[in-house]
Structure prediction request, 353 residues.
Amino acid sequence: MPPRQCLEIYHRLYDMSSSQKNTRQMAECLASLGFVHLCDGNHRTFSKEAMESFEEAYKLFKIVSKSKRKSEAFAHCLSKLGLCYIAKGIEENEQKKGQQKKDPPKRDRPKGFQQMGDRQKGKKLMQDAIDLRKELGDQVYLAASHCDRAIAARLIGEHSQAITILKEECYPIYKDNLGDHPWVATVLNYISDSYKVLGKLEDAKENTKKSLDIRKRTLGDHQDTARSYVHLAELLRLQGQDYLSGALENYQKALSIQEKVLGVDKETAASCKAIAEILEEFEPENVPEMKKRADSFTEAIKKRATVQRQISHQQNETANSHLQKEKLKWKLEIIVVVFTILVSLLLCLRCSF
Prediction:
């Protein structure tokens, strides 16, 4: 199912849960929305929309009973929110570095202060998710937490550590329990991505081809299958001029899927741009048309993003309003209980006299 349709379904489910004042379902829908936003960036960058959704989900989860909160849905929210905090810290640190080139650093705030604060929050939340998943006892979901640890390591540039975690604590558990499953393909893709950063292109290609094979067989024409084609194309481009025709072929396969499955999307636009760059070497007469397609996608994406931000903002406001009402209800219930106890005590004292 295309990501836009997933968002639409979760938005509708959230509205239904909100109208029924079902706090737990509202939290689960918000966590699902956050996950779709996170996947939109392929777990590579900070997503403000994802973080806002996970934060509101976390707040709602915290006001349901402990027995209802003890669930995979809450563990999932904890782990992904932790990942968002780590990504946020890295982005803010990069922005701060850019600012420090213009302005001298402030003495009353240590360098990297905000990043370390967010990173520690992220690690704490991810560890909470691991502890909960150990308690729940599902080894596959526990491996998913370790996969998030590996993603966090990749985000902070610790690619060797990420590969070790993925190979030792994710891949074997997924493979043994799920077989040739899309999650196995995702782990292989993460391993490949880290090998690419480390300059080990042959290792990266080997893992990408394995990932692509699984995705073609299990998913068919899907966003992730297109991503594997793109990743293979990127690796071939890095290997030089002799591999450009192979890179072009893989980009074209990716674009064919993206136009069918995603339509107007930043990944579709990126494939158009990459194809245009390679066509300059082979078919320069076709470059303007491909650039025009890329530009049209980019413009449409900007308009859609504005609408999506408005919808997300409205839902977060609804969640916050529901949270405040629930807290007020609790306070009123406590006041009633305390008042009842006081009245009972006064009656008892009166009877004793």
Summary: Residues 104-115 have pLDDT under 50 and may be disordered. DSSP finds 14 helices and no strands in the chain.
